[in-house]
């Protein structure tokens, strides 16, 4: 408990290290910047103190005086202790400026030399604290920082609250943190300054927990382990870090089906009330902790006859949730279940699983419990687990199938058929489907270290290659080994050749070689009777030919769709359905493309295939973006990016697509950041194919941001890359019109015309109507730059109509915008109003901002006589720029959410800004803003 001037925090509390709290931190920072105060609240371990330290570190430098206290439960009974921590070191500075009665009361309370109490000196003490804060503020801003507000002694809390409510415009701000479980923060908010905003800290997401663990040095944890840490911790940062530390200190990671090691510190924290339960009730809770979805009925069937009374008793102690949730028995926090299980002896755990292996109704659960109740190998147990894994796979739960498969391998004797390594490989393939690439890779490496069977070794090598994703250069040494193990076996060679096709594309950037390898793979697979690999190879060949603009692409797609089909390939992201979708998108058949991708996405979600889901979310987002549904595209792209980052699959491609969506319908700065991230990752991976796509996204984002020179630099690189890759179909990246438009903006009309002419020749050959329309739009801008105004207007009018018929809503709106820019000052159906209407229909917010900026510079159009003049803004002149913008939108009737979307800020930032507006203008509501701007006196 200290008082410090020029307070500085260590580097760990910098705002960029407040992981997972960035939006909330920015909103709190805005509140403080506007002169307000902040109350942080949430459960123990949720990160309140971290955010409080970061905020106080940032704003401590701007305050002349920082008063700080951090109370503890053990000292909360000592009266005036928190007040002494806050004011003790500045007492000499302010005491002479207080009236005698107030000074005497305050000195007595802080020094303990008298017998001051709230009962005897209540008014004098209250006024003394208020006067002391005002005296300090007279010399400069004061920042009061109080952590663990719930442990403040009652006397100090009462005095601080009294002063806080009466500070008015005094330069005193407060940052408080208090532990709460629900909405009881209202009590503390009432004791804070009137302009205080409360922020509840929520649990972290899985991706945020992963980032937190990495930041604290617990790196390299498998994603499946991070997922379990997130589940067990409930997203609580303190719990997650303690679990991560326990894993880092444990040289033997938990086996499949086993819980995480729970450190003693957390066991003591969450099980402190367990000693109050009788022994039999504890055993009942242990059985509940071992079950996946325990109910009272299940516990009774498992032999816990008094389960109803015992679970009720546990709920009264806070160990189980008291809210009704059907028949389920739910622990108050996942960590309680994990700690209870970890605390139990191994023999008692096995007994709990043995009871559940007969009580559970689900065959998957019965098999899992049987495995965890059994030690050593057992062919019957292994067979039941393998059957359960198949059932889980059919249900669309590949992660569960992988876990059961590993349990089956553990219980499989070495001389069984199938053997343990075959079951491990199946589990590894299930892990890939579930998006657990690190687990799959580890299993495959383990198999390679022990088996000499060629089929198993090739299968393991393929898994190692698959888990490398687009970083295939990292596994270059695997291919010769895989070919050596394949020997002359056509089935095994087909598998390796298929992977070599991907290598040719991703590492060498050679579409022709990739096409040739897929053809070899398809032939070998057909010879071996491996229809699955044959279909995958044909589908890949079709996609390569489509991107190359090869005339055989439609025929190859038909071959890939020919019966018999393999259901595992039909909805695979590298299957014929995906190839057909890509062809439809590039051929301007958007309704058919949407129907195809919707069906594919539905099926892979049913199957639980994470990689395919990431891929198809991108495809769906791209289709919506082409159709001009920017809001929907942005939602899909963000969902895909979250899933990609969570699983570690397709992050570069997802960042690229999300950058396009953000630039069209979201935040341009975020679009630029994502595009640069995609470029950086593609360059690191040596992935020439996605490097060109990422640079295309960057160029588009730069164009929307108004950086024409940046657009030209990025898209010139794309042009060079695609020439080297021999990509001739302009519908692949659709960057050509953007490059031509940016070249016009910087005065390079000759190069712009060259881009248009070369691209138009290819688009005509392939029948790419939408590409031709966009090229004509760019050519109209070239003509306008050359002074051919009437021809440019006529061309743009035709282009807008063609794009509307093709269903390319965003490109239609851009054509209307270009047309309006050529008709400045000439009102009509194609004025800026038309562009605004079309961009609004698309929810293309960044483009709407461009229209607004362009409209400001056009000559004013005479308003109809009946149109009233807009209200004057003279009453808002004292506001800052952001405050004026928010107030102006309030006058238009916009909601807080609409204002946030329009200005590209958070809703919380809008709320904080409005609070400052009310305070500065001396008003109380949104209605008063309108009245003030209209020249009327607020009520």
TrEMBL record:
Ranges of compositional bias, category Pro residues: 859-871
CDD domains cross-referenced by the UniProt entry: LuxR_C_like
Gene3D superfamilies, per the entry: P-loop containing nucleotide triphosphate hydrolases, Tetratricopeptide repeat domain, Winged helix-like DNA-binding domain superfamily/Winged helix DNA-binding domain
Superkingdom of origin organism: Bacteria
Coiled-coil zones: none
Domain HTH luxR-type: 872-937
Spans annotated as Disordered: 856-875
Keywords: ATP-binding, Nucleotide-binding
UniProt cross-references to Pfam families, sorted A to Z: AAA_16, GerE
InterPro entries: AAA+_ATPase, AAA_16, P-loop_NTPase, Sig_transdc_resp-reg_C-effctor, TPR-like_helical_dom_sf, Tscrpt_reg_LuxR_C, WH-like_DNA-bd_sf
Sample GO molecular function, one term: ATP binding
Keyword ATP-binding among UniProt keywords: yes
Protein name (database record): ATP-binding protein
UniProt organism field: Streptomyces hokutonensis
Lineage, top ranks: Bacteria, Bacillati, Actinomycetota, Actinomycetes, Kitasatosporales
